[in-house]
Design a protein that fits this description.
single chain; 54 residues; mainly beta; five-stranded antiparallel sheet
Amino acid sequence: MRRLEGEEARCFFCGDDGNVAGLPWLHDDGGMRDWLVCLDCGTSNQRCVPPPPT
């Protein structure tokens, strides 16, 4: 797990800066995903991970 910073750290549900993310993996559709978890309210969901900047 890694603690997110800036806008990524803000939880969409509770508004606190408690988001962490797990290791990305390759989804069946070919896109990268990771798990996003708020340590404050406990909400979790998958999210699409954008490709690294080139």
